[in-house]
Every structure is written in structure tokens, then in C-alpha cells.
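Could someone model zinc ion with this protein?
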Amino acid sequence: MAAREIRMDAAQGVIVQGWRSSEDGLFLRVRGQDAELRLVCICGRGHWIVHENDSEKGAALLLICHHCGARGTFPMERVRASVPRP
Ligand SMILES: [Zn+2]
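Reply:
Sure, complex below.
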């Protein structure tokens, strides 16, 4: 199954619900898309250093391109399990 590709500069506004890193690059699961998107840098490469950052404003996914050092930030939507509190 070929994943769609999305360039970093075209990806503003996406809400990330999940991600995975593989030998083929970084794949994002985003709100409103039923297929994973492979994130490609403006330099054409697709490998990223990934950090998840939690703050009081919400979670974010911080990305740095392995090749050219370009940075990107995407908001993350946490899909929390709704566990009733005792
Ligand atoms: Zn790059």
C-alpha cells in the first residue's frame, strides 16, 4: 500500500493523531485522512528527528530534518482512552 506524500510546506494545519518512523520515512496519521501521509521535507528527504512535546497548551510533534535541519511543528491530538475514574 503506497502512502500519500505530503511536503512539509504544504502540511501546515494538519492535526497529528499518530506517527511512526520507519526505514521508508516518517508516516503521520492525521485528522480527516483515512490513509497515512509520508512527510517529505522541502529538501526532498523524508527522515526526521522526532520529539513529542507536552505542555499546558497541548501536545506537539517537533520535527527536524535529518538532512537539512529544517524544523516543523504540528499540533498533536491525543486520543485518550476514556477510563472512568473510580
Ligand atoms: Zn530537509
